[in-house]
Design brief:
Two copies of one chain form a homodimer. By secondary structure, chain A is α/β, with parallel strands linked by helices. Chain A has two domains: about 150 residues, Isopropylmalate Dehydrogenase; about 160 residues, Isopropylmalate Dehydrogenase. Helices cover about 50% and strands about 15% of the residues of chain A. In chain A, strand 7, helix 7 and strand 8 form a beta-alpha-beta unit. The longest helix of chain A is centred in the last third of the chain and has 26 residues. The radius of gyration of chain A is 21 Å and the shape is globular. At the A-B interface, helix 5, helix 8 and helix 9 of A face helix 5, helix 8 and helix 9 of B.
Amino acid sequence: MNRPVTIALDASGGDFGPSVVVPAALDVLRKHADIQLILVGDETAICGELGERRDARLQVRHATQRVEMNESPAQALRKKKDSSMRVVIDLVKSGDADACVSAGNTGALMATARYVLKTLPGIDRPAIVTRIPAIDGHTHMLDLGANVDCTAEHLYQFAVMGSELVAVVTGDPRPRVGLLNIGEEDIKGNEKVKEAGQLLESSDLNYIGYVEGDDIYTDAVDVVVTDGFVGNVSLKTSEGVAKMITHYLRESFSRNALTRIVGLIAKPVLRRFRGLFDPRRYNGATLVGLQGIVIKSHGSADVFAFANAVEIGIVEVAKDLPKRIHKRLEQQFLARKTA
Amino acid sequence: MNRPVTIALDASGGDFGPSVVVPAALDVLRKHADIQLILVGDETAICGELGERRDARLQVRHATQRVEMNESPAQALRKKKDSSMRVVIDLVKSGDADACVSAGNTGALMATARYVLKTLPGIDRPAIVTRIPAIDGHTHMLDLGANVDCTAEHLYQFAVMGSELVAVVTGDPRPRVGLLNIGEEDIKGNEKVKEAGQLLESSDLNYIGYVEGDDIYTDAVDVVVTDGFVGNVSLKTSEGVAKMITHYLRESFSRNALTRIVGLIAKPVLRRFRGLFDPRRYNGATLVGLQGIVIKSHGSADVFAFANAVEIGIVEVAKDLPKRIHKRLEQQFLARKTA
């Protein structure tokens, strides 16, 4: 590559569009001297946000359309060929960008990325993976909603992709992979999970067996593998619990004059505490299994959160994630053939 | 009934057996002047725990066997016919007890209860349901692990049972019922969930449509319906998140001398806060859909938590829960026939 690492940003995606994406882009440029960004979307809106804050490493690329948050993936794919979402993916396909980031509609993003970039050889379905805070560390979980009905083989592929992604991100060459299951003695999970467990046992991954929902938030496992329905419910449930707990924490300190004073005294401690699992710090999910790097930001991401999603893209470009997953898959298939 | 309400307690179940069940039983008797209890298990161990603390409303019934926590349900059913778990269920069957409570192996408890008591007419499979803390209220969720692979019809039956249970417990005649689903636009859940949604739309339940994982912890829904795999993962995930958050809260206040002083000042506020979603307060899950009342306590329950599980049994006896669910089912079937 002769040009610097270039990330294309969907400036029209998400709940806030350019008002979040533009300042986040400027923050990223300030932090990384060696990065270029392409802002894709409504040129007038983007330039309006930019104002005088131009940067030679920031290009603006006009797109005439926008994928709506509730638009069907099929419709987005068919009718929005000049949407900001489609153009950022096209830029990755053409090699003009090394990765793209969008806060738009997840279903449309996945469908478009899959159509334009294609999956890696050996991958039936891409998956969505994100980092999750845990006691004394982090966990990555996949799939988070791209694949509702999976086979055991799909779960196995998710495990390979997740393992390689975590190896790339953390530097640990053998992250611990667990299959999400339930512990009831009579059932021990459904047939699909059992079958996936057998595939993983005969793989060369660092497979540690079944894990349960509470293990996600401990240091027991690095990669949690499940289907998109269960993964999505688990992630959303976690958000719900965290919201409830912080709601009651705030409420406990604002019950009366005395508790409010105590709250003032405890404020710095509580602020640091909330920062530890601030969802904005964990914003940015990777669509793995594609021939290209696509990062999904939360639709409601603010500037700080969106910039974090861009950072994930930068790391994955630096480590050449798709190529590494591809290599790992080839090794796996050789290992399975000779097994 | 000529005798007072009688609850049979499996004194050998759970991690702690009589050392938890016996003091919990005495606490319940102190609180309820009109209740009788039967402690079932190893007579010597129970009497050793009781010591001088006898009560005329407390009978002891010897059982020669104990179902182990890792024992298969089939084995428990076949080989443990005089286990404390089996005897408490037999006492419900014979009418000598109105309900039973066990902290033993969930799979064995469900299999034994189903075999001895049978399901209510119209119910294919019993389910496990429990109360969950939420912002400004509570939610009930089912199934929590009894049924890994469910059909749409099973989910529909869970909805009927859950709705009636919540009506009984809260007094709200039309609790809001939601189907747990995921929000990705292209998929909107799997086929089974869609089909169950159609069944619920044509029912006379207060069905509010799909809910997502984060809705469980809000005031948006009263009864969350899902299959046992997803429900179990969701519940365990919640436990994991809560543990992680309380871990970091403790850690934040013990970082240095200053934060420890702040922690001392904030202690009463933090103690009350933690009490709000203390899992011990929520101990006790109902096995619904049986011709009898069976309550499952957490295996690691302490005295306070086990007593809470017994309280749930007392409420369900007072409201004659199985009969009410049976009636409701009959109405549903009539409604569906005439629809």
